[in-house]
DNA sequence: ATCCGGAACG
DNA sequence: CGTTCAGGAT
C-alpha cells in the first residue's frame, strides 16, 4: 500500500493554510503564487512549443497534448510543424498525410479535427486562428480546456485553463473533495490566476503537477478512465485505420478475412469510421467485385 | 456515462 | 500488467 504524501511537507502553519476550503484573501493567494513559481524557477521542463507564441503552433501543440504525455509529443510536434507549417498548408493537405503524421499519438480523430479546424479557419476566420476562447470553442476538437489554453500560451491571456494537472493540484493543495464539479474547480482556478502572468503561471502549475504533485504521489485519480486496450474494439479500430492509411484502398471482404477474429462487430467499426468521415467508399466501388474502402480523399 | 489510442512508466 | 496522460464529442 503506497502512502499518499500529505500537504504538510513544509510546516504545520502551511498545513493549516492548505486546509482552508477556498482561499479568498490576497495574502494567501500570494503565498501560493510564491510556492508554485518558486518551484518552477528551479524545475522547468523544456518544450519546443514553449519557444513560440504563434497561435497556430500553439493550437497544434495543445491538440496533440490532449490526453498525451508532453514528453511523447515533442518529436511529433516538430515533424508536424515541418510538414504543415501554417494553416493554409494543413487545410490543403490530404487526410491521409494528416493521419500518417498523427500515427503513434492515438485518438486519430484529433488529427482529423485539427485539419478541420484549419479548413474552418480558412473559411470563417480569414485564415487567422481566432484569439478568443468563445470563438475557438466553436471549432472541432476544441473544448473547455483547449479554448482557454491556446490564448493563454499564445497571447498570455488572463483566463484559467484547467487540465488534469491543475485540477489535481487544486484538489490536493486546498483539500477539496475529488468529486468536486468542473465549474467549482474552474472558479477556484480563476481566483488563483496571477493577472499578467498567465502563460508563466500555467506552465509553472503544469510542471509542478507533472514533476512533483503527481497522481501517484497524491492518490488523486484523473477524471478519465480507460478500459483495457489490448484486443479491444479501439485496438482493432486503430489497426484497421493504420492499414487504410498505409494502402490506397482495401476490399471490405479482405478486411473481414484479415480481422475475422475481431470479437466486436467489424461492421460497426467500419460504420463508425464512415460516419465520422475518416473513411469513405471509393466511387468506383462495387464495379470491382465488392465494396472498396479508403481514407477519405476530401 | 461512454466512447475515442497508444506509448511509457513503476 | 495496471495506470496515466496539457480532453472532447456524443
TrEMBL record:
Where does the record place the HhH-GPD domain? Answer: 64-211
The molecule here is called HhH-GPD family protein
Q: Give the family, as the similarity comment puts it.
A: Belongs to the Nth/MutY family.
The molecular function GO annotations come to: 8-oxo-7,8-dihydroguanine DNA N-glycosylase activity; adenine/guanine mispair binding; iron-sulfur cluster binding; metal ion binding; oxidized purine DNA binding; purine-specific mismatch base pair DNA N-glycosylase activity
Alphabetically list the UniProt keywords.
DNA damage, DNA repair, Glycosidase, Hydrolase, Iron, Iron-sulfur, Metal-binding
Cofactor(s) needed by this chain? [4Fe-4S] cluster
* Coiled-coil stretches: none
Taxonomy of the source species:
Bacteria, Pseudomonadati, Chlorobiota, Chlorobiia, Chlorobiales
Please describe what this protein does.
Adenine glycosylase active on G-A mispairs. MutY also corrects error-prone DNA synthesis past GO lesions which are due to the oxidatively damaged form of guanine: 7,8-dihydro-8-oxoguanine (8-oxo-dGTP).
UniProt cross-references to PROSITE patterns, sorted A to Z: ENDONUCLEASE_III_2
GO biological process entries:
base-excision repair; mismatch repair
Amino acid at each position: 500500500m503506497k502512502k499518499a504524501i500529505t500537504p504538510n511537507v513544509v510546516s504545520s502553519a502551511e498545513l493549516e493554510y492548505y486546509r482552508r476550503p477556498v482561499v479568498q484573501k490576497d495574502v494567501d493567494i500570494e503565498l501560493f503564487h510564491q510556492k508554485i513559481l518558486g518551484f518552477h524557477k528551479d524545475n522547468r521542463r523544456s518544450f519546443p512549443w514553449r519557444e513560440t507564441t504563434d497561435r497556430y503552433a500553439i493550437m497544434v501543440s495543445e491538440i496533440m497534448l490532449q490526453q498525451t504525455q508532453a514528453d511523447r509529443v515533442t518529436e511529433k510536434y516538430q515533424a508536424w510543424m515541418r510538414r504543415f507549417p501554417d494553416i493554409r498548408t494543413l487545410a490543403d493537405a490530404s487526410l491521409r498525410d494528416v493521419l500518417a503524421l498523427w500515427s503513434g499519438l492515438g485518438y486519430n480523430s484529433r488529427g482529423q479535427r485539427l485539419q478541420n479546424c484549419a479548413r474552418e479557419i480558412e473559411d470563417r476566420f480569414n485564415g487567422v486562428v481566432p484569439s478568443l476562447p468563445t470563438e475557438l470553442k466553436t471549432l472541432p476538437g476544441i473544448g473547455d480546456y483547449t479554448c482557454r489554453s491556446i490564448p493563454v500560451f499564445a497571447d498570455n491571456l488572463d483566463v484559467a485553463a484547467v487540465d488534469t494537472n491543475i485540477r489535481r493540484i487544486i484538489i490536493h493543495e486546498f483539500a477539496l473533495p475529488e468529486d468536486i464539479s468542473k465549474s467549482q474547480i474552474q472558479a477556484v482556478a480563476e481566483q488563483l490566476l496571477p493577472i499578467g502572468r498567465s502563460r508563466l503561471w500555467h506552465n509553472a502549475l503544469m510542471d509542478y503537477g507533472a514533476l512533483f504533485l503527481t497522481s501517484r504521489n497524491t492518490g488523486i485519480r484523473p477524471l478519465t478512465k480507460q478500459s483495457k486496450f489490448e484486443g479491444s474494439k479501439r485496438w482493432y479500430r486503430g489497426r484497421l485505420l493504420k492499414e487504410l492509411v498505409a494502402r490506397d484502398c482495401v476490399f471490405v471482404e479482405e478486411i473481414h478475412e484479415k480481422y475475422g477474429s475481431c470479437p466486436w462487430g467489424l461492421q460497426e467499426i467500419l460504420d463508425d469510421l464512415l460516419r465520422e468521415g475518416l473513411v469513405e467508399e471509393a466511387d468506383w466501388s462495387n464495379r470491382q467485385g465488392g465494396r472498396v474502402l479508403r481514407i477519405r480523399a476530401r
